[in-house]
Design a protein that fits this description.
This protein has one domain. Helices cover about 70% and strands about 0% of the residues. The longest helix has 22 residues. The radius of gyration is 13 Å and the shape is globular. The mean pLDDT is about 75.
């Protein structure tokens, strides 16, 4: 996700605000793929990340119009 973000920021710096969520998504992927090596995420943190991810998706869809 971070490499993808690096590319899009070159065209629209607005997306830089989503760097944190991209890092978190990478963490969640690692946890899903290697559940024995990563601790369980905090439920409240996941909920907040979900809202941020929804904002990111909304912005991307708006830009695609």
């Amino acid at each position: 996700m971070e490499r993808l973000l690096d590319n899009i920021v070159q065209f629209d710096s607005y997306f830089e605000r989503f760097r944190g969520i991209c890092e978190e998504v990478d963490f969640y992927y690692t946890e899903e793929g290697y559940p024995l090596f990563v601790s369980e995420p905090i439920k409240e943190g996941v909920a907040g990340d979900l809202e941020t991810a929804k904002e990111l998706v909304k912005r991307i869809l708006e830009e695609m119009k």
